[in-house]
Design brief:
It is built from 12 helices and 17 strands. By secondary structure, the protein is of the alpha/beta class.
């Protein structure tokens, strides 16, 4: 079993991240620096891989005989034991001298490092996280331990790094696609799972809320294994009153965040309601690919009008996932089910797709020529170049002078044209902006 160690200076949220990855509250969480003085270890599963997870005392520069010094020694011991380090910074506070010092220390260590920019709630938090590029530890992963944002991406990155390690010890096992079935109560999620399994694995019935826990099963299609999770129905927050309902909703959200693709089941007789849109937006915010299963299609009388109404809602209320795949099905009798998993595989391939730097920048130059970046505070924003540091979801990093000041309409212009040019319907696309000059570009011009 491989070991993952969480390191960072005190009070950046290491223990909160530890608790989330462990799946239960183990470490004491408090705002007082230095609460975690000893290493804590737990066996956990991250990205489908069993690991030993270590939470460490905060890294501090201090004399060895002091408490802070002993905490640092404990972190050093964890580093020597680790197959992968999660280095945590607080992007609300910004980079500190201690962050930079320990980043230098980690760069010298012969251990792969993932850089976590914690407390990155909202768009401003994600933009603040980009400052962490300065540490030279690769692409920062914006997360919020408090809200659970970004943990799906974290699971993906941990899995990808650990599977790069010597494979002889683990063997060449197939990696299952992680798929979650989500939706409002009584939309037909469990019936869909039973149909996919070909057996009555879930209890189904007309009473809403029969499924209380997120339940995982493994199936295979023509491509390979799929780890499929059926979840309790996601209800409106005002209706979550009992502890059991809170736990069920929490399990649903956790399953969505740890999935790669989600199937959003919608009752075609009711149409797409506000709660369905909230679930879809949550999937987009977490960077998950999504397919809509338009259930009970066989009972719809005016199919043309029903489909047009759905398309209108998606166009005007879910523009950030333009082109999302919709598969009309009847989970009860199996009609349309044969097209559902192929759609999941197709959107999963798009979600994993990378565009080469040369091809990306040829598109980028055309977009800039077609529509120049605007003036901001009387100065021209000069966009230099673009890279695609990661997929899962497709992520574009744009560099240039005052790039971080790019207005929202120009950001949408770039994302929409990227989606159209590279044929990526229905998948979330991330755009990260860095106000740093290309060292090979000409000097700045006003």
């Amino acid at each position: 079993m491989q070991t993952v160690a969480i390191l960072g200076r005190p009070n950046v949220g290491k223990s909160s991240i530890f608790n989330r990855l462990a799946g239960r509250k183990i470490a004491i969480v408090d705002d007082t620096p230095g609460v975690t003085r000893d290493r804590k270890e737990v066996e956990a599963e991250i990205g489908g891989i069993p690991v030993t997870l270590i939470d460490t005392a905060g890294l501090e520069e201090a004399a060895p005989e002091t408490l802070a010094g002993r905490m640092t020694a404990s972190s050093d011991a964890a580093l020597r034991q680790a197959d992968l380090v999660l280095f945590v910074i607080d992007c609300r506070t910004g980079l500190t001298a201690a962050d930079r010092a320990f980043a230098n220390w980690l760069r010298r260590a012969d251990v792969p490092v993932l850089l976590l920019a914690n407390k990155a709630e909202g768009r401003l938090g994600i933009q603040n996280a980009m400052e962490a590029y300065e540490l030279g530890l690769g692409d920062p992963i914006p997360v919020s331990a408090e809200h659970g944002d970004g943990f799906g991406t974290l699971h993906d990155e941990v899995r990808d790094h650990l599977q790069k390690e010597p494979r002889g010890q683990r063997g060449e096992r197939e990696r299952p696609l992680r798929l979650a079935i989500v939706g409002r109560p009584n939309a037909g999620k469990s019936t869909l799972l039973n149909t996919l399994l070909g057996e009555e694995r879930m209890i189904t019935g007309p009473e809403p809320g029969l499924t209380r826990d997120a339940i995982a099963v493994q199936i295979r299609d023509e491509v390979g294994p799929i780890r499929l999770v059926d979840t309790a129905g996601l209800r409106k927050q005002a209706r979550i009153e009992k502890d059991l309902e809170k736990m069920s909703t929490g399990a649903s959200i956790a399953a969505l965040k740890e999935a790669e693709v989600v199937i959003l089941v919608i009752d075609a007789l009711l149409g797409m309601e506000e709660q369905d849109l909230r679930i879809a937006r949550l999937a987009e915010r977490e960077g998950r690919a999504c397919v809509i299963a338009f259930n009970k299609w066989d009972a719809v009388e005016d199919r043309a009008a029903t489909r047009k109404k759905l398309d209108d809602v998606l166009t005007f209320s879910l523009a950030q996932m333009k082109g999302i795949m919709v598969v009309p099905i009847s989970a009860a009798n199996g009609r349309g089910i044969d097209r559902l998993l192929p759609a999941v595989r197709e959107v999963h391939d798009l979600w994993n797709r990378r565009i080469g730097t040369g091809e990306l920048n040829r598109w980028f130059e055309v977009m800039k020529d077609r529509h120049q970046p605007p003036l901001v505070e009387g100065k021209r924003i000069k966009l230099r170049y673009a890279t695609m540091p990661k997929a899962r979801p497709p992520t574009i990093a744009v560099f240039g002078t005052r790039a971080e000041m790019l207005p929202e309409d120009y950001r949408r212009y770039l994302v929409n044209s990227f989606r159209e040019k590279f044929d990526m319907p229905g998948v979330p696309i991330r755009l990260n902006l860095r106000g740093t000059d290309n060292p090979y570009a000409e000097g700045d011009e006003e």
